[in-house]
Amino acid sequence: xxxxxNYSALNSARNLGDSQSLLNRSLARLSSGSKLIAPSDDxxxxxxxxxxxxxxxxxxxxxxxxxxxxxxxQTQDGYLKKVAKAxxxxxxxxxxxxxxxxxxxxxGLYNTExxxxxDFVDATATRDFNGVSMFGGANxxxxxxxxxxxxxxxxxxxxxxxxxxxxxxxxxxxxTSAAAxxxxxxxxxxxxxxxxxxxxxxxxxxxxxxQEQLGVSKDNLAAANSRIKDVNVAxxxxxxxxxxxxxxxxxxxxxxxxxxxxxxxxxxG
Length: 269
Fold this sequence. Notes:
Blueprint: H1 7-32, H2 43-96, H3 104-124, E1 128-129, E2 132-133, E3 140-142, E4 152-154, H4 162-168, H5 176-229, H6 233-259, H7 264-268
C-alpha cells in the first residue's frame, strides 16, 4: 500500500478524461448536425466534403445563370409577340391599300398607320435586357454546369436584318404598286419572325432541360455530401447516452479510487 502514487486514481482519471472527450465530441456532433467537427475526424472525408460543398454552390450559381437566360428569352418572346401583331396589321394594310376603289388620299391614311407600325418594329430592335441587347444579333453563351465548360450557345435574334428593314424602312403603301411591293416585304418579315420565334422557343426548351439537369445533379451531390458529413442522429444519440453513463461512472469510480489510500490510516492507528 502506497500513498504518493495512487495508480487506481490515475487510471480512473485517464478513463474519465477519455470518456469526457468522447462525450464532448458526441455533444458537438448532435448540436451541429455534422459528424466532421474537425478535419482529424475524417481527413479524407473532410477534403471530399469541402470539394462537394464548393461544387454544389457552383451548380446553384450555374442554375441561377440559366434562370436569368430563360428570363432574357421570355422577355425576347414578349417583344416578338408584339412585333408579330404589328407585322400582321402591316400586311393587312398592304392588302387594303391595293383596293382600286380607294383613292391615294385613302392610301395616305393607311400609309400613316403603316409607317407608325414600321417605326414600332424598328424601335423594338433597340431594346435591351439589363443592358444586354436582345435583338442586336450578338452571340453569347450560358454556363450550364459547375465547371463552366461546354456552355450552351444561345442562338441570337437580329431585328436589323434585310428581312425586317425592307418591310419597315423601304416600304410604303401610298400607291397600289408600292403596296404590292410592301406586301411582299412584309410577308418576308413575317416568315423571318416565325423563324426567330421558333429559335427563341428552342433556346428556352434547351435552357429548361439544362436547368432540370442541374437540379438533379445538385440533389445527388447533396446526398453524397450528406453521407460523408451529416451525423446519424439515432446512432449518435445512442453513443451520447453511453458516453454520458461512462462519465458519470468514471466520476464515481475516481472518487472511490481517491478515497482508497485513507485505509492506510488504519495501519497507523
